[in-house]
Amino acid sequence: MMIFEPLVGLLALVNVVNGYVPRLHAKHAHPINRSSSSASSPLVKRDSDPSNMEWIKRWAAIGDSYTAGIGAGRPMGHQITADEVAIRVPDGLEEIRDNYKCSRYDMAYPKVIEAQFGAHVQKDGGFQYLACSGDRSEQIYQQAQALKGELDFVTFTAGGNDLCLAQIIADCIMLPYFKNSACETVIAKAQENVKSIIKDNVKQILEALDEKMNDDGIVVVNGYAQFFDTTSDNCDKQSWDVFWFLPLGASYQALTISRRHTFNQLVIDINSSIRDAVNEAAESDKISYKVGYAEWDRWVSNEVDARMCSPSSNGDYPDSNQPDMHFIKPDTHPWFNWASDVERDELRKRDMDLEHMLSSARLSTSERRQVKRLKAIMEARDRNLERTLYDSILYKSPNPNAAVRHKLNPRDPSPPGCPGDGGVDMTFGMGMPDHVGQNFHPNEAGHLTIASFALAELMDLRSIVLGVDSPACTVKDEFTCFSSTGSKYYVSGNKTNENYEEFCQEVADKHPSNTINWSYPKTYFEGTPEEHEYIVTLGNGVSAFDKDQCVESMKKLINSCDTSDNPMNWKCGGRYIRDEGDYKYELHPRRNNRPWPWPRAPYGRCEGWYKFVLGQYTVEGAGFSTWDYGQKTMLPNMNSCYGLGTTAWKFDYHDNPADHNGYEWKATFNTPIWVRARCWNNNKVVEAANGWTDGCKGND
After folding, report:
1. DSSP line for 443-494
2. Distance between CA atoms of residues 200 and 212, nearest Å
3. DSSP category for residue 619
């Protein structure tokens, strides 16, 4: 029953997408003349409502792992027995391409669409599902050739595997050791070839589909989505590498913001090439059906907290703090979590490499032997990757465009290779297990979004066939309090109210006035429990910024939420989308480990001990002094109580208050002797700092 659970949400999301999807296909092949009468077109007689899908009797889904849906829901088929959709694909694919071998899953976007279509699809062969994880454009071309014809609708993804993205993920994220050049080399070739390879490949697939489609049929090509949020450096401190638990060097550098930008740009470039292929196909005389492009990336990247490395997540997967996550990812953890803060900082400063690790006294003889063996394996693998890269058609062809253009020709079965192709198969033909291969693929939420955008594009194209207006909905202003979503992030309302007007003025002063679709974030009180971020985002081609609207919107976000049972005026933040999505204002608290439920009053503890010529004090607290390291709250009131004389001052915020009896910070310091009674036991200092400690034990 899993497949039907999200369908109510799907219907709502399709309606939103219909009003949101940018219409990128300005021209479609042979649009119907809108002046034609109903009698002149049997299709109009059959159905005049673009949202009614009963005209679809036969349809298919082809493509790579994004269409197969690896990891989304439950695997289809059986490891031993081929199932009823097994098919032998001609010209180069000699094995049975069944559900299990291709890692097709029951929550993939084609299966979500299948459930939405219902009983009007033919029972016998009405849906052909040939998508296969790992397939490149050559194999997807063969999938298209293998389809049984007279199809009303086809949807697919293709192109990502042509650029060896799986290899890039392995070399740059999962195995980023020993400062090898394989990652940079493969990325450089992908960047060089993305525009010359992808467009031709997708166009040839679209041309191969022409003989399979009814004249009034529709093909929707789906793009990819950017994997990574790039607003903070949280991911370069997480263990994405598969050997995170071994001391193998500074692998925390694997997912820097710069590298995430590079990955995202590759996806943007791939989508651009796919879109160009679709637009050219729509004008081509070789194609008689209607074709469109569905770009779900803008929703993932701009509208929801859906990407990996989001500041709202601590690396867990799944993560209750990021319910809108759209990708499957490893369950990452802070690197060197076995080390103290001092050790971890020192390791980062040293940029510790393998040779240093081998000489480290921390390793036993056995551990050192294991690391040396792993080093030898990695270096051999690195040499093989670089050699196979230089030997591949992608690299050494003097004209990559010409070489790749002919790769789909059945008479030339040798496709361009990826680094590592043709090497020793350590899996003995079984491939990587799905729990590994599913990483960096859409999860159930991602496939629901892909299905929504594909159906919205399908309805838009259907309206052209019928000669009627596209279905659309008006996007109303959307106001969301994060507390209503179950968020446990919060900050002080006093501190958020200090900053929003200054923030809006700064945006007005610095925003790129001649640039559309921009975003401006700023973080306040970084590193403290009160850390929070304001973000203004402009979309839909808008460039103009209204400071007064910003101030009004931010004030509402701060003060219209979180007002009940909240005597300390905590704020959970929210999102305010205005003017049909043109403007988005956000307030995000960034500390995810504060005491919960939020405190209704400040609390703390104090102890002070007489040490001959001075008093030694320890004070811990929560709900006060949470933004200034005690510099503007505690210290001035201490000085006003007993005068100067505070020494050895140390103030730290706890990473996890739950491990410190719920206290968010700890201060230690020395004072003149005998100040406990007049300054601490009577709560004089902490009350002046808006706190409370229930006295102060000790003998000072």
Report:
1. -HHHHHHHHHHHHHHHHHHHHHHHTSPPP------EEEEGGGGT----EEHH
2. 20
3. E
Nearest to 220 by CA among 450, 481, 448: 450
Average pLDDT, the chain: 78
Distance CA 95, CA 108 (A): 23
Average pLDDT rounded to a whole number, residues 479-486 = 85
Report the percent of the chain where pLDDT is more than 70.
71
Residue 293 pairs in a beta bridge with 221
Longest dimension (CA), the chain: 105
Fill in the DSSP letter of residue 415: P
Domain 2-466: give its CATH code: 3.40.50.1110
Among candidate residues 124, 130, 74, 125, the one with its CA nearest the CA of residue 102 = 130
Distances in Å between the Cα of 640 and the Cα atoms of 459, 632, 644, 688 are: 72, 12, 8, 10
As a whole number of angstroms, the distance between CA 194 and CA 380 comes to 28
Domain made up of 478-589: CATH architecture: 2-Layer Sandwich (3.30)
Cα–Cα distance measured from residue 553 to residue 533, given in angstroms and rounded to the nearest whole number? 15
Range with the lowest mean pLDDT among 64-68, 361-365, 563-567? Answer: 361-365
Backbone torsion region of residue 607, taken as left when φ is above 0, otherwise alpha when ψ lies between -120 and 50, otherwise beta: beta
218 touches 299 (CB < 8 A): no
What does the pLDDT read at residue 20? Answer: 46
Rg from Cα positions in the chain: 30
Residue 504 or residue 298, greater confidence: 504
pLDDT of residue 623: 95
Q: How far is CA 428 from the centre of its chain?
A: 32
Q: Output the pLDDT for position 37.
A: 32
The tens digit of pLDDT for each residue in 515-533 reads 888 889 999 999 999 999 9
* Residue 468 backbone class (left: φ over 0; alpha: ψ -120 to 50; beta: rest): beta
Residue holding tokens 């309606």?
15
Q: What are the structure tokens assigned to 666, written together? A: 């700890």
- Identity of the residue numbered 569: N
The strand pairing partners of 610, in sequence order, are: 615
Whole-angstrom CA distances from 99 to 35, 113, 140, 628 are 46, 17, 15, 58
For tokens 């907290």, the residue is 305
**How far is residue 594 CA from its own chain's centroid?**
25
The span from the CA of 1 to the CA of 166, in Å, is: 32
**AA identity, residue 292:** G
Run of H or E residues at 62: strand 59-63
CA distance 308 to 326: 8
Indicate the pLDDT class of residue 22, thresholds 50, 70 and 90. very low
DSSP string, 359-372: H-TTS-HHHHHHHH
CA 44 to chain centre: 41
Name the residue ranges covered by the structural domains of the chain. 2-466, 478-589, 603-698
Q: Cα–Cα distance between 534 and 573 in angstroms, integer?
A: 9
Among residues 115, 120, 83, 121, which one has the least CA distance to residue 102? 83
Q: What confidence tens digit (pLDDT) does each residue in 30-88 have?
A: 333 323 333 333 333 345 889 889 999 999 999 999 999 999 998 887 665 555 555 55
pTM score > 0.70 for this model?
Answer: no
